[in-house]
Design brief:
The chain is mostly helical. It contains seven helices and seven strands.
Amino acid sequence: MTSRQVPKKQDVRQHPSGAELPATAWAVLGLLSFPGERTGYELKKWADASLRFFYWSPAISQIYAELRRLEGLGYVTSQRSGPEEPRAKRRYAITEAGRTALAEWAGGGGDAGPPVLKHPLVLRVWLGHLAAPERLRALVGDHIDRTEAELAEVRAALARAEGVDEWAHPQVALRWSERHHLAELELAQALLHDLDRLEQRRQGPGDAPTDE
């Protein structure tokens, strides 16, 4: 998994109604700010195809929990599908109050907050004194393969958003994600290089690499 901006403590903001909302609630409401009504399942699919590349993708249970919270605040409405559908579905839409609150949060003053980096691979490397060198290299190699696969997904998402006026800002975010994944690949290659140098240094002075 590539590094993610997954907050340990979510950004909680006070809004005019007096309730406190975490950043994930705003993200779910943000998914509804684009044209159309969506089910919780559709919101999850969209989060997996967009949000996860630069923030994170909430679990389906968390999406429904946030939808219930947002509906209770009057920021979202929902309605069940009619009998013409084989399975009843509840579709959600943003209200004007929800759009106003979301716009206030998105354009609010102050610092948006620092990114919080949680990188499981680097944590393993930090504990590398307890692991075999070849195992660490294999972990980095797996990470490179996964990052390359995710980069392809980001580029596919960019291609889907191309030319859609409503997705202009999501395209900007996805281009950032593309650059982020490219940087992650460069960092992973540098990590392999550092591990090689460390292992050669441990083997003895005669085997230490030069900087040439």
